[in-house]
Amino acid sequence: MKKIVLAGGCFWGVEEFLSRLDGVILTEVGYANGRTENPTYEDVCYKNTYFAEACLVEYDETKISLENILNEYWSIIDPTILNRQGPDVGSQYRTGIYYLDENDLGEILKSKEETQKKYDKKIVTEVTPLINYYRAEEYHQKYLKKNPGGYCHIKL
Questions:
Q1: Where is the Peptide methionine sulphoxide reductase MsrA domain (predicted)?
Q2: How far lies 13's CA from each of 28, 46, 61, 83, 107, in Å?
Q3: Which of 34, 46, 91, 117 has the lowest tally of Cβ within 10 angstroms?
Q4: Model pTM?
């Protein structure tokens, strides 16, 4: 199994969307690449922690490729907007691809380059190694499954 962490605005919709892909084994929401240890949702929203709301994706690469996951990811975000997706504004809502396997970097950069051809504005989605990740509180996990009709900026 392979893993990648993707940030695309509010993590509820990103998780729900990616969990529906055939070959995705597990999704979990959390906070990625911030400045503190063990952040809470309130810390991420109201303090200067610089964490991104993100979705950890574990997938079976014999059933779905990283390329396919990234193509789906690009389809649900606007990668040209900094620190915002839909009505959600703040650095925690930035878009980002955080990789755990250095061997994935080439494929990620190729995907970003191909996606850039679809936009006049520069893509601002960050691509960096996963520096740190903390699982979000339980009430955020599978939020839209627990709360059908709950808030989501992504058309599911």
A1: 3-153
A2: 12, 21, 23, 16, 24
A3: 117
A4: 0.97
With both helix axes pointing from N to C terminus, report the angle between 66-75 and 11-19 in degrees, rounded to the nearest 10: 130
Q: What are the structure tokens assigned to 151, written together? A: 């808030």
Asked if 54 and 6 touch (Cβ cutoff 8 Å), the reply is: yes
Q: Which residues are catalytic?
A: 10
Q: What Cα–Cα distance (Å) separates residue 23 from each residue in 6, 49, 61, 63, 99?
A: 16, 33, 7, 5, 18
Residue-range domains of the chain with CATH = 2-146 (3.30.1060.10)
